Each structure stands twice: as structure tokens, then as C-alpha cells.
Amino acid sequence: MIKYRYDEEPLYLNYHFKKMEEIRAKEILDSGMLSSPDDAEYLARYFWKMVDFSISEEKAGVELPWPESREFWNEKLMNSISGYIEAEGFEESWDKVVGE
Is 41 part of a structural domain of the chain? Predict the structure, then answer.
């Protein structure tokens, strides 16, 4: 199961799951485990897609319901998600996506 350092991290994720109409990444995280390298790679790709989406929202002037910046939350989630993927034994999947 993914461990978040801040209580707001899953809220920030859910905010983006809804805005981006993302189902699979939410299901992967809700299941509490990564069952395959494909799931790990999908989650890593989703994270970076979410970062791009958050940047486009920031440029469009969309306000967040938290006082901290998108950069702040994206950095916290990068640590949580990459740590989770690595702890589950799929470090290669994270590294593959980051290297693209």
C-alpha cells in the first residue's frame, strides 16, 4: 500500500483523477498493490501526465483548493509514487518512464 507523507496527497490525486477522468490509476492505487510491471508503468505514466495537466491548469489560472502550489504537491507525490513503485519491486518501470 502506498504511504503518503501528507494527508493532502491523496486529496490532490483525487482532484486530478476527477478532472482528468482517470479510472485505471485510481483503481491501481485503491487496490493497495501493484500486480504487474504494466500497472507500475501505467501509474508512472499517469503521474507525469498529471504533472503536465497541472502545469496547463496553472498557466490557465485555475486555482487549487490548497494554499500550496502545484509544484509543491507534485514533488511530494513524486516521492510517494516513485517510492511505492520501487518498494513493490518495479523500479525498472519507474526508471523506464522517467528516461523517456
Answer: yes
